[in-house]
Predict the structure.
Amino acid sequence: MTGLNRMMAGIGLGVAMTAGALAPLTAYAQDTIKVGVLHSLSGTMAISETTLKDTMLFLIDEQNKKGGVLGKQLEAVVVDPASDWPLFAEKARELIAVNGVAAVFGCWTSSSRKSVLPVFKELNSILFYPVQYEGEESEKNVIYTGAAPNQQAIPAVDYLMSEEGGSVKRWVLEATDYVYPRTTNKILEQYLKDKGVAPEDIKINYTPFGFADWQTEVAAIKEFGSAGKKTAVVSTINGDANVPFYKELGNQGISAEDIPVVAFSVGEEELAGMDTSALVGHLAAWNYFQSVENEANAEFIKNWHAYIGNDKRTTNDPMEAAYLGFQLWVQAVEKAGTTDTDAVLKAIVGLEVPNLTGGTAKVLPNHHLTKPVLIGEIQADGQFETVWQTEGDVPGDAWSDVLPEDKGIEADWTDPLTGCGRLNTATNTCEVAATAM
Amino acid sequence: MATRILTLIAFLLALALTPLPAVAQEDFAAQINALGPGSFADRTKAMDVLVATGDERVPPVLQALSDGNLYIRESDGKVVIASKAAGGLQLTDPVDGADLGVLPSGELEKIKTNNGLRGKIRTAIGKLTLLSPDQPTRLSAAQSVLKNADPAMLELLDQAISAEADPGIKSTMQMARALIVLKTDAALEDKRAAVDLVVAQNNRAAQTVLRNTLDTAPDELKPTIAAGIDSIGRTLAVWDVGQNLLYGISLSSVLLLAAIGLAITFGVMGVINMAHGEMVMLGAYTTYVTQLVIQSVAPGLMEYSLAFAVPAAFLITALVGIGIERGIIRWLYGRPLETLLATWGLSLVLQQLVRTIFGPTNKLVQPPQWMSGTFELWNLSFTWNRLWIIVFAIAVFIALQIILNRTPLGLQMRAVTQNRRMASAMGIRTPFVDAMTFGLGSGIAGMAGVALSQIDNVSPNLGQGYIIDSFMVVVFGGVGNLWGTLIGAVSLGVANKFLEPYAGAVLAKIAILILIILFIQRRPRGLFALKGRAIES
């Protein structure tokens, strides 16, 4: 709605997609480096991923104004995998094999990431993956710029257990039924039990995708919370199901002072579609909030608003992750002096860039980043207010130490050619990772 | 409202508390300013100091802190109360209420609160407002006293109970008193009386109080308390059935609304309309646009925006429906597979069109005040928006019955569906009736969208979530029969809600699907099958 141009472009895009052949947006040019953008612009995930596509175009535009990379201009190649997991693999192949992109920025859901993995391995290219995820993975061809479970879920639970967070003793793990919540809850359940929480004080509940009728679930949370011990809800509810969930919470009068809900998938974008006045005090754990007061962040938000032409558009955590991934890739290419995959992967480990919250994002040998963890409370204006944050940055742990089967497992890609994604430090052997789908 | 309460608080404190020796002005200012710097723990300490003064100026300051209206003036570190004004924030001195002018928000720093602090503020204000003449204020005060059960409150609570006239508030206060008595080392007889009193309340709050005291109670009372918890539990189990029934009826009303338009287009006309969900979505977006228009033209009417949105949604989606029928579907009558594919494609086009025009993110539809919150009846609780949706669904159903059975258009519709050629021979313009029927079905879907905008996302994907359920309801109820759709919606909704607490939402949904498959095997035409030669052919 930011102007006729964008609307016309959008309509053009829609027409091109209906025709079933979305050609690369820009014509062939001699001295450019191509960068692939692989985010759904239609279908169910468009709600989240469209913003990341805009973010990538914004970042590339900014970089080109600074003179590009290696003296060449960058050229974005945008494709639309339409929230269809197999189509992600096809589009990734098209980007790498047909368009010859140097790196791809994309994917949101774990299903889409798992779908493109074999393509990136086979064609040896790089994927920058900007979303918090369930961990239990480390691949040569992927740089994970979002949070691993130890950079989001575990600190959030620690906060709620602390006196400041309300000394929570009883836990409801409310989740959508798919791979990310299942794995996260497995880790959290083990972690809570290790901390001495009795099994009867943990309630895990799964609901289907897009679930809209939360009456029974919210009433059950209310009842579970009336047992006399301080109760909190850890929500890994995904996507569209969040709005009806929070509406029901507000209407049934569950206030954050009585039963706080901490969410791992609700950011500024999601809150924009809700009336947050009844939700003040409910929590979210991220590595970035738009409200963080910091020069770098203020600059980023200012430029983003100028680029998108709408000063109401929010920024969010995956946008910061995309920003970090892009800055790291630019630095790695400059350092390697080439866009060759193995050279860039060798150069990128150990690189550091300042993040937008005043810390430093460093690429670890396991292809994850160091990140601060922030806990924010929802405010009446739809923003988060940081109420707690980790001291210093937390290194991302690919294989959670909480799970017994992953104790002592590390990943090391310092040398991309001989590295290992699942190194058993006890036996010093490289195990073949069981691909959990 | 807030200001009224604050005035009351001030008035009451002046009345009820013995006037304390006035704290020196400077001391009080320093105590207020101590709320500003430091951690949450420091702020809590500063708050305790303030509450201990018992000063009448304290509650408004705490309320402002809780509401996020308390700021530090960066120039001198003074803590001030702020409210929105043109050009920044309007400041008030918390010490003497003086007007401190307007400052841009850049020169002020908001004092942060968190859940813990807000909880403590609520308790502090609760203590200070237990004798308020205002009923809701007193109720929330009583509830906050019940929540933290501070033994120091006993005396004030006794005073409040003897003065209390409202039975609901009185029982909350008595429960709080009982809980406090059980916490203190009062005589056994007092404690026994307190337990009996709580057990007699026989509701969920009472059960919570008993559970809280079970561990610390004297051994003689433990069996009584345990028995009390059990007996309340049995009562509540009975109420739970009623509660599930209510939830089931609420889900049924949503299903009915979503499906009833389809009962016309699919049930009566026989068109497999996969774009039905998108009509619901368009209705929801019409609500959003209506609110935007009302907001800019007549903000005072926002409370009644839904009253404008319902006819607007009906008209717009009915027109879109007529367009679809005239443009696409009429070429495909008698070819169900092609109709299915064409409408499926159409649904994707409509989704992407809305996504392009309005953007992919959710849109905010403001709920009106009268549709927010919960009401409690005996041991049942129910949200207002769900109740209104049930009322709306029933109204739509009745209106549709009247249209079909009492109007010329309804008569023509039924005639055309039963025997198209005969109706045509009698002079009915069948193409016109087709278009009107499809428009009616689509318009009703649009009205359903207005209702769904109150409980679900307003996003381009809204319709997808309802299309399968709608077909399920129509097929289960019996194609071509509105009463079948009603019964189908109610039985599916109630069955789903009764299964959910035991099987979980995922399994409940699967179980319902399996049940429907089995049922359709036995009765392929659904619950209420139409009979007659025209149907058989």
